[in-house]
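stage 2 :: seqdesign
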């Protein structure tokens, strides 16, 4: 009886020991599986996810870098930013190759990035040339933009695949420790926390990239437009004049017209600068509306505000010989009607320049310049100095 009890106690101890060993073995087995999965997530998938997000941001940044070089023309800054961007992209591509060792998508992205570098070098050569081909530069930037969009689309697919892989591994981890409630809760909670934090940082980073892109677009717009009237400014005027004069085709005759609003200072002194600003805005709106109906004689004409009371009209193509004269007459006709500014009616006059034709007393030109023949003026200042020659 006593031996039977001893045997029972031994049997109970043996069962407990066996259960303990089995539980330990199961805990180790499932814990090791969870550790392997978690280790792969933390050391491979999540860094790869961050690298893909960084790579996407760096690819998106390429287009603003090229636009800045095209607009500002700072080659030193362009080369520095491109080198820094290239280092980041190469580092992130290395991580992507490790995460997707046999992926054709990674190879396609590398091929397209090589194409982008080639286009960037061609753009650098085009903008560094003695005579800049603006059309070629714009085409190169457009090609880069299209290629970047293709890369971003491929990266989005890779990120989605990686996210699915992360999700599958998380589910596998959950299944392995399903019978061990405490471990399941711990590992699931930690995994959820890591994914949540990673998702938060990825979202914040992408939001920062989008915000920087919007800020860059706003700066480019502000650099090229007048803040008061919204018209293109002197910088854009100079660029377009140089383009029209240096890149004109055979038989194409550009012209420039300078316009001043008379007695603006008197308006500012007597009625206040707010009224003067509204007057300039109204003049700009009226001139802009008037130009929209002039395509039959000077297609592609554009209006600029240079500074103060001065506006300019660039006519890159003259459909008829006397298009500037007709345009001047049309402007005069449109400006005869008074402008209503804050309850006041103001008449607008367009300032001309001193008579140069004694046989035509009282005639005053509007500062029109037409290119007839011979080499293009060396710079925009020559155009402005000769604005009354037509």
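stage 2 :: out
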């Amino acid at each position: 009886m006593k031996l039977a009890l001893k045997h029972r106690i031994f049997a109970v101890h043996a069962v407990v020991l066996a259960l303990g060993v089995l539980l330990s073995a199961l805990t180790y087995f499932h814990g090791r599986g969870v550790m392997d999965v978690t280790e792969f997530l933390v050391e491979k998938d999540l860094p790869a996810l961050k690298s893909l997000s960084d790579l996407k941001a760096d690819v998106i940044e390429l287009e603003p870098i090229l636009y800045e070089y095209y607009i500002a023309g700072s080659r030193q800054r362009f080369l520095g930013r491109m080198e820094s961007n290239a280092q980041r992209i190469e580092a992130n591509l290395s991580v992507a190759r490790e995460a997707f060792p046999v992926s054709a998508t990674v190879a396609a992205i590398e091929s397209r990035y090589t194409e982008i570098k080639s286009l960037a070098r061609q753009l650098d050569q085009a903008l560094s040339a003695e005579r800049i081909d603006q059309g070629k530069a714009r085409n190169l930037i457009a090609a880069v933009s299209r290629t970047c969009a293709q890369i971003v689309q491929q990266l989005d697919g890779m990120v989605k695949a990686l996210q699915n892989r992360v999700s599958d591994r998380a589910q596998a981890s959950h299944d392995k420790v399903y019978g061990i409630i405490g471990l399941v809760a711990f590992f699931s909670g930690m995994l959820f926390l890591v994914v949540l934090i990673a998702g938060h940082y990825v979202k914040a980073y992408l939001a920062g990239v989008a915000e920087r892109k919007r800020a860059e677009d706003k700066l480019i717009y502000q650099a090229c437009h007048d803040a008061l009237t919204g018209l293109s400014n002197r910088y854009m005027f100079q660029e377009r004049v140089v383009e029209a004069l240096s890149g004109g085709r055979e038989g194409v005759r550009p012209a420039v017209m300078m316009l001043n609003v008379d007695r603006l200072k008197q308006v500012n002194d007597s009625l206040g600068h707010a009224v003067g600003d509204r007057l300039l805005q109204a003049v700009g709106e009226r001139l802009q509306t008037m130009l929209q109906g002039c395509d039959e004689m000077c297609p592609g004409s554009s209006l600029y505000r240079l500074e103060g009371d001065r506006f300019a009209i660039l006519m890159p193509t003259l459909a008829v010989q006397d298009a500037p004269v007709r345009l001047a007459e049309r402007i005069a006709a449109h400006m005869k009607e008074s402008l209503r500014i804050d309850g006041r009616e103001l008449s607008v006059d367009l300032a001309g320049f001193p008579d140069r034709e004694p046989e035509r007393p009282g005639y005053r030109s509007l500062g029109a310049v037409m290119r007839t023949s011979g080499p293009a003026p060396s710079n925009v200042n020559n155009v402005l100095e000769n604005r009354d020659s037509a």
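stage 3 :: structure notes
- Confidence is low (pLDDT under 50) at residues 351-374.
- The beta strands are 255-261, 302-307, 310-315, 339-341, 344-346, 350-351, 368-370.
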